[in-house]
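FAQ: What does the model actually see?

It sees only this:
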Amino acid sequence: MDHNAVLVEERGAVRLLTLNRPAQLNALNEDIKAGMMSALEDARLDDSVAALVITGAGRAFSAGGDLKRFAAMAQSGDWQARERFADLDFPRALANFPKPMIAAINGVAVGWGFTMPLLCDVRLASSQAVFSCGFVRIGVTPEFGSAFMLPRMLGLGRAMELVLTARQVDAAEALSLGLVNRVTAPEDLLPAALELANTIAQHPQPAVRMAKAILRHGAESTLEQTLGYEIDLFKQAMATPEHLQAVLAMMAQIKARS
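And it is asked to produce this:
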């Protein structure tokens, strides 16, 4: 197993995860899967981590699933290998991650490299990034929650077009479609993502995590279902010491300006 398939760096209260198979365009294999799941669990349990940034090494974010792995599974007819490769633990690890996640999409983002960032909370892209929901090109179907996320982000018609044509989308079109929040120059991408993550990290973390949970819940629920959950978390946030500290600090700032 390649323990360097996902690099982990501390950037203050932000943890940076880098997909690190640049010679293979960071194609997803068992090493990246294991590295990502381990890194997500460590970050979830570590109270010093306020936010994650995920990016890719080299010229790609990720070119999707490793084609050699697909070919080996198809040629062997090993259904158990397919079950292991396509289990739900991995997408659930991202979908249920409680802290803010920012995808810094530095280059090619195809297949899994297209769908995985949809489970991140904010997506920034380099002007050199190229996107393709390219599953049908290799005879498979979209995964990683994209059948839920993509129509909600783009609308059903636009989602259908991208999925059924598997066409490429450049960074400018990705921004206009709403696939990404912001496009930067290549050299500005990681600094912008880290700056955004650090801005988030400065706020009281219980409230940040609850706010993320509320928005996720609201996106998946009716208004009536959202109202009760929303107010329950509001009351929980009011009971945290971080809330009192933040209110007192803001009151002091207002007093100092008056």
